[in-house]
Structure prediction request, 214 residues.
Amino acid sequence: MKLKILILSVSLLFFYGCSGNDEYREIQVKDVIEIKSTFSDSDNPNLIYKWSAPISKAELVPEFEIKNNIFYFSAQEVGSYQITLNIETESGKEIAVENFNYLAMDFIAKPEKKYEPSTFPSKELRQKKTLEKAYFTVQVYAKPVKSEAIKESNKLFDFGFEDVYIEEYIHNGTMFWRVRTGFFNTKIKAERHKEKISKALKIKLDDLWTVNVK
Prediction:
């Protein structure tokens, strides 16, 4: 099993004999960037991956996550960001060091982006739990873009609503993602839930749907 350790130290941003290059990749502010190591050693499975935080010149640390030795971060301000990955054995022997340099910009046209924006692992598509019986739920949105549905589901979750999930469905040949919340055994309970959503997110009641799922 590969191990991972996060090191929040500016000193780790500078190593000698690092792999990779010093060129800066242009990224757009608020895009989630996924970073993978290019190092591979199948004969040594128990390596330790030490990632440095993506500290900007203003010494601000943007949002970031690590999962399965993959690093995700999102720059919230324009500027340069440097991330270092130090790979070691369990005994502390240094195997490789990789530098990743990024230059965050206000806007980059989609055709000019040399990367595919990612999603934080903690905010991946929420799926509904399996229920055997019929229930009532509230549909809040129906989005033709998956990332928009994820964004709206996160907004509901941030407002304190639980049991938020996303369903795919096809309408007139077009794929949509429905954002729904709640599992209720009566329509009255679902209607009360709808009123809470309407007040919290300032959405008209007529724009919300109570759905009987059988």
